[in-house]
Amino acid sequence: MRDPFYRLLDQLGEIGLLTVEVVRHLFRRPFEARLLIDQLDSIGVRSLNVVNLTAIFSGMVLALQMGQFLAKFGAKIYVSRVMGLSLLREMGPVLTALMIGARVGAGITAELGSMKVSEQLDAMLALASSPVKKLVVPRVLATILILPVLTVIADAIGLFGGLLIAVTQLGISADFFYTSLVQNIALSDLLSGISKAFFFGYLIAIIACMKGLTVTGGADGVGRATTSSVVAASISVLVADFFLTKLFMTI
Predict the structure, then answer these.
(1) Which residue ranges make up each domain of the chain?
(2) CB 3.0 to 4.6 Å from 229: which of 5, 16, 180, 211, for a disulfide?
(3) According to the 3-state scheme, what is the secondary structure of the chain?
(4) Predicted model pTM
């Protein structure tokens, strides 16, 4: 059995090669607009429920915890400032990416893996049709484009959840919550989270596609690849978040 380090290097190499292929086919005609629209609907619209549910309860918990802690120092009126920064810079993009990685990443891997073990990908190659062009490019591009949009929606829903807790549990007026938030949140805070979402979308999609295209072992292999895809995407998002945060802090 090969050392895990070398298996990791092999996977990184496969991701790099697949990325090159995606870029090469991205600008090659014909452009598959219909396939892209279908993936935007599948990845974005159908993920709204889980993203919104995660965002509103995360915002409510964040406001409740911070409000209770800040109240010890007589500073609970600042809960919107701290919560806003946390959501826009970190929790919004990261939680959205984790939810999309679990739902969409697993789905992409299962779809492509099933096509691989049933030899549908080989049939496409025999018909001179590129699986990367038809299957991978629309999924990668759709995930990269839709994840920032879902992040903005999650930020708004999360702030609304925090507002509900601030008004009903902390005794802070809605006007003061809004005014304090707007006065202390800069556009760069929002753009920081949105920029991270682009990178997260790429990581989730390219890992899911790579895992699906390299499935071996029949149906059992598809199951293993799906689990591996979710774990790898989640870890990649968390690791990338650290380095992106360090990068944005120096800009």
Answers:
(1) 48-250
(2) 211
(3) CCCHHHHHHHHHHHHHHHHHHHHHHHCCCCCCHHHHHHHHHHHCHHHHHHHHHHHHHHHHHHHHHHHHHHHCCCCHHHHHHHHHHHHHHHHHHHHHHHHHHHHHHHHHHHHHHHHHHCCHHHHHHHCCCCHHHHHHHHHHHHHHHHHHHHHHHHHHHHHHHHHHHHHHCCCCCHHHHHHHHHHHCCHHHHHHHHHHHHHHHHHHHHHHHHHHHCCCCHHHHHHHHHHHHHHHHHHHHHHHHHHHHHHHHHC
(4) 0.90
